[in-house]
Amino acid sequence: MGFRVCLLCACLCPVLSEAQDTTKRLQEVEIKDNRKSNFGHMYQVDGMKIAAGKKSEVINVEMLNVNKATNNARQVYAKVAGLNIFENDGSGLQLSIGGRGLDPNRTANFNVRQNGYDISADALGYPESYYTPPAEALKKIEIIKGAASLQFGTQFGGLLNFEMKQPEDRSKKFGVESKQTVGSFGFFGSFNSIGGTVGKLSYYAYAHYKRGNGWRPNNGFESFNGYFDLHYHFNEKHMFGIEYSHLQYLSQQPGGLTDKMFQDDPRQSNRARNWFAVNWNLLDLEWDYHISSRTRLQTRAFGLIAERNAIGFRQNRPDQYDDGKAPRDLLKGNFKNMTLESRLLHRYSIGNKTMNLLTGVRAYKGQSTSMQGNVVNGSSADFNFPVSEATEMLHDYEYPNVNYAFFAENIFRITDKWSITPGIRIEYINTSANGSFNTRYKDNAGNTILDSITYENLQRPRSFFIGGVGSSYKFNPLLEAYGNISQNYRSVTFSDIRTTNPSFEIDPNISDEKGYSADLGLRGTFKDVIRFDVNGFYLFYGNKIDEYWATKGNMVIRKRGNVGAARIYGMESFLEMDVLKLFKVKNENWTTAVYSNLTLTKSEYTESPIPNVQGSSVQYVPLINWKTGVQASWKQFKLTWQFSYLSEQYADATNAKEGDYSAVNGMIPAYRLMDLSLGWNLRWLSIEGSINNLTNAAYFTRRAIGYPGPGIIPGEGRSFYMTLGVKTF
What we know:
The chain has six helices and 37 strands. The strands form six sheets. It has a 22-stranded antiparallel beta barrel. Strands 1-4-9-10-7-8 form a six-stranded mixed sheet, with no helix packed on it. A hairpin with a 2-residue loop joins strand 22 and strand 23. The longest helix has 15 residues, at 2-16.
């Protein structure tokens, strides 16, 4: 602990030297972001974040002409390089994205934040994101690939940050925005927001409701999402803010399919008793202190109270008929956590060069619980454990979790063009699991031959240090070379420690994942006609955790543990061209641009203790991931056409090509999709329309192990949406 304090003091020395700041404070000047495109990258110092030398991407959501009503990730993230997207349904209730060989499930390999604070269930023990803000409420989405681990946690994926809309015209006291959407399969969405500035107080709030029947039977959903923020500027130095987010939804899950079922009819469902519900509550308190013209301190306390409940007939044979009488698997999770995070950004000089230091501390405490059992309670969305002899408890656990961290990064500008940004992160983590699980085996006649309860008290304390360095060279204001290398770390999660599942069991020797990621790229603009960002990347994944087949006595079971070390490398490229400027056509009424987002990725398990894994490709890593499209506008009319192609990929570490009886293993065939969006706006009125999956292609993006499976989860067929909107701010 003393070492941490000394290191913190050392990093704050430049701040202490600024205590007697004599710089004259000028009248406040508002600087607006002049990025005109709907996609770009972050500045070297962007708010309270350092992005110098990193692979960063920014989606300016407000400028997108896509289907925002359903949070269609394939369209919203179309220009982000290398993302693999799980499409569970057309509701957009959950975001599941990954990249560079990282599991997309609920975006668990990114540190997911909203306005700079955590929104996932448990940043360490259960980093899955059940809450996703509606795209209609977002100003932009920021992504920093793996090197973000030094500032925002240790994840291999990096940072994903949702930035909400804020009142931009401080002279306007009140404004309103309302969008009403209708679409295929009974979809209805209503987004309504208000915002403004009154004196020193600025505010923004929205309410978002949507419902639908879904593309498949047994696929209905209903959700409500609410949010408000208040920011009070006491004076030019002090600002206090409060933000609250609430999400609740209930969805019916039609279950997975076998390969044959998908080929016969991808819309079929034989699961009428599977339900999923989420209740999410986030609170953030922020104090922003401009200590001087060179130094800014941001301290925030944020917390989560949430629950996730799932119930269903979840046999590992998707083709097994549910007669409505068999017990259902009930899984209840409750999450409570609190975090205090303080970040200090300081600008100082060495000679005639300006340097930037970002340093901070984080203290986190979580208390989550998980209960699982087999219950007989009908077919409705009943998430209670009945007091009955028919109730069979499988596990009952508490997961106390503690994390303390210190981080620092510094931009050293060696010349006017060249900068180097080293960084460090020191972590203390204690992941615990206290509870009991039931072990029960039956013979072929259904007689119980083993029934026992095991009590556990697991403690996994560890401390470690990770570091990295990035560099940027600006040939001119429009052309930049960047590179970085950073260590990454993923701690064992709750589900890695204990989850009772008919499909698999946990290896008791499971251990944390370690590795590193690196980027080397070139980005820029050529004559205001072509924008590009091309980079090579390399990711080393040690001790990768995944599922595999194993033998237990005379049985063959699925097991979860460390399957080995993997390397993933490739090329990411983004190119956007203004067609009219290319051919020197001057027409103020027309704009036309084409883009290409191509990623080529190679992956391989370099070593593994599991048979048939070494030399195999890593799961969910297509060789080709390509998205291209055309964006055009004429006066108030806008059109966006997008084409997506992903080559074949594997769902398990052994690269099985044929689906087994559970359809958990097997290949995911290549698929091609097209989407079309149209828009018209005139001052305060807008009309938008979209057609998703224009050619009605049959495809799937995942083979689920647990909920919403097991089995193949089909992608949604052709669908139509229409939105009418008004906006006064």
